[in-house]
């Protein structure tokens, strides 16, 4: 099959025959083995579908041996985690809601063609492997990526066009609806984004036709499974004990803890009522959850009542402040309802950029790093910290993607930047709060971002038909749990910088997508105009006192060795004398950083002296470092010396150099050019009076 001008090849039955479903898929020369495997029995003691999605990067696929001592791939990279999440999000809603068997969707990257991104190949391969397997699955679905260069869309772009273009859009579709959207964009308009989404949707239909053909030819019959659904009779019995009006009253509050206490009390009553019914007791948590869900959805869809009493388009109370944390380079706190994020920015020299080892040859380092933390106390729970999980990595990457388009260039702001979003309190959409908080902390740190960025999440509750729905602005946790959509959009007043759409149903119609995008635009403008801009309206024109001050100088490549010196002696001496940190790139770019701007100036002056060839008439200042019978040696910079003949020290004749000079004296000299032997000659006595 030809897909966007490149050959797509699928082999079934050749490898991995013991998996429930497997395809060896090639797009160009990019090859991925995608498998789908399920357990025979449901996992006991879980109230969720145990789906695991893996994207395995292998360095042999690009002809490299991994770095490190063991020379073996270690834990999943950030790209692997994010790719697995993108695959998971459209696949999960298409499995049965009452399915509790363990399912693993694995993608092994075998070969990488720079013209065909392995992430895309894995996405398509996963859908194919699952559809032809015997695992219950309401597919097919398909995924397409759209890039943009010079204002033109590119279907399934090359790695270079993806990395350096103005759009990174991934869209998954079913036969007639969009089921997942993931995007990073260089501030493109709502209309352009919608056009790109549905261009991808159209391409997806070609892939779905191919999957349908595969299923008809090699697809397995879906196996039957043990349903874990709550019986209708149990729900009816619960309603006799807790009438719908009482459940509405229990969930109708804007305080998360109050609502949880109400539900806990109801659950305890039901436990007592069903004490003699073991079957009911085993399903009680699921039943209470389902009862809450039906209650909330009915209140929203039919009564247009939100649990916290807000209007459908109303945003929760907002507050923002900056500079709340002392001694850091930049800080802010953004609060939306019971969601609160504190973001802290740290600035460092470019030598501190994050090194990246992966399959993408274009991305070897990250200058801007956004990290997100979600401690258990933020939701009133007790759980030990085990480091960032997939959710934390995903939220950090989303906020990072949201702010990347407004960051200044290295030439404009020569710093490595790290933003850390600490979740103080969570009740829905902490990733969007992180975007708002990090934007303000960047401005507080003096990072000259091009424009302010905010983010908001829209939700959805659907009825029995495609036309029966309601879009919610700024969803809280309860509306996220029980609703059908979490549609996150970030951007400036004028353009979109990132999108992440998760849904729990089998897709969205175009009117819903368009309404969510436009609603999000209105909301983020409101947040910026009424809250963020009042805390800080523009980036500060200086970095914090405790932030390093960074200066640059470009030197000839052939002079790098002179600055470094033998075994680093010269550069280490510059650092020791000035207290500034000095880093040199292979292209001759020298970065000098310290807390003291004067130290930077001193170091740069030394470097300039070292790389500048002596010429006649040049005025230099230096220190006497050696005295001989015939003259004195003056050091102008570490490793850069010149000799002043005894006859050139003083206007009058002197017998001994020591009569005029001593070690450590600071002197000004003038270069006289080359002497008879070809060496540069210097003079103290011939220095013009106005230069001393």
Describe this structure in words.
There is one protein chain. The chain has 692 residues and is α+β, with helices and mostly antiparallel strands. Helix content is 31%, strand content 29%. It is built from 15 helices and 29 strands. It has an eight-stranded antiparallel sheet, with helices on both faces. The chain has a six-stranded mixed sheet with strand order 1-2-3-4-6-5. A five-stranded mixed sheet has the order 11-12-13-17-16. α2 crosses α4 and α7 (256-273) packs antiparallel against α8. It is elongated, with a radius of gyration of 33 Å.
Short note summarizing the structure:
The protein has 692 residues and is of the alpha+beta class. 31% of the residues lie in helices and 29% in strands.
Residues in helix, % = 25-40%
CATH class of the largest domain: Alpha Beta
Low-confidence stretches: none
Strand proportion, as a percent range, falls in 25-35%
Our Rg estimate from Cα atoms comes to 33 Å
Shape summary: elongated
Observed structural traits:
Arc Repressor Mutant, subunit A; 29% strand; Ribosomal Protein S5, domain 2; 8-stranded antiparallel sheet; 692 residues; 15 helices; 6-stranded mixed sheet; alpha+beta
